[in-house]
């Protein structure tokens, strides 16, 4: 029975990778991490089950003395009205625009800055797995034409837009 589960998992993984192989996950060529630090507002994202109820999500990135990044993310649960906060730590990698985030004891994910405004006012963020996509802004609301531009960049990279959920109305 275990062999069947393992075999089914392998086949599902191969089919998933084949289907999403065309997504361009190259990160920005040059990132000034110090400029990226601070508060960001989540404008749009691919929903994951544990995030569906969260609204008004803000992320705050802080550079620690050891060179790593503290990543605090908070949002309001629409059912309860309570604020939920999560805190993780990330370390720099050799690749510009990529951080390695520690989720649990042995589990890590990549935080990939795919596109970034020259003035660090908006960012398109993904991970090495095409399950994550976020549009972040320094302001709680983003201009409609800017949002269209960022969504176009995501589409050109091969991300399916039908999964992208707008969280904050553009101005």
Question: If you had to describe this structure to a student in words, what would you say it looks like?
Answer:
- The chain has an eight-stranded antiparallel barrel with strand order 1-2-3-4-5-6-7-8.
- Helix content is about 20%, strand content about 40%.
- It has about 170 residues and is of the alpha+beta class.
- It is globular and about 55 Å long.
- The model has no long low-confidence stretch (mean pLDDT about 90).
- β7 (about 120-125) and β8 (about 135) form a beta hairpin.
- The protein contains three helices and nine strands.
- The chain has helices at about 1-20, 35, 145-155, and strands at about 40-45, 55-65, 70-75, 85-90, 100, 110-115, 120-125, 135, 165.
Structural category: alpha+beta
What is the CA-atom radius of gyration, in angstroms?
17 Å
Order of strands, main sheet, comes to: 1-2-3-4-5-6-7-8
Number of DSSP-assigned strands: 9
Largest sheet: 8 strands, antiparallel, barrel
What is the straight-line distance between the termini?
55 Å
The gross shape turns out to be: globular
Low-confidence stretches: none
What's the helix-strand series? HHEEEEEEEEHE
Amount of beta strand? 35-45%
How many alpha or pi helices? 3
Brief characterization of the structure:
This protein is α+β, with helices and mostly antiparallel strands and 171 residues long. It contains three helices and nine strands.
């Amino acid at each position: 029975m275990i062999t069947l589960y393992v075999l089914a998992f392998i086949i599902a993984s191969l089919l998933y990778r084949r289907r999403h192989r065309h997504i361009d996950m190259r990160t920005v060529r040059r990132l000034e991490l110090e400029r990226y630090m601070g508060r960001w507002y989540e404008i749009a994202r691919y929903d994951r089950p544990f995030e569906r109820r969260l609204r008004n999500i803000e992320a705050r990135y802080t550079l620690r003395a050891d060179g790593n990044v503290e990543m605090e993310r908070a949002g309001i649960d629409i059912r309860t009205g309570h604020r939920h906060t999560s805190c993780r730590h990330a370390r720099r990698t050799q690749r510009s625009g990529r951080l390695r985030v520690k989720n649990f004891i042995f589990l890590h994910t990549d935080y990939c800055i795919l596109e970034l405004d020259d003035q660090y006012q908006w960012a398109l963020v993904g991970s090495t797995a095409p399950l994550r996509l976020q549009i972040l802004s320094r302001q709680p609301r983003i201009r409609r034409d800017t949002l269209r531009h960022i969504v176009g960049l995501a589409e050109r990279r091969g991300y399916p837009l039908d999964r992208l959920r707008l969280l904050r109305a553009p101005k």
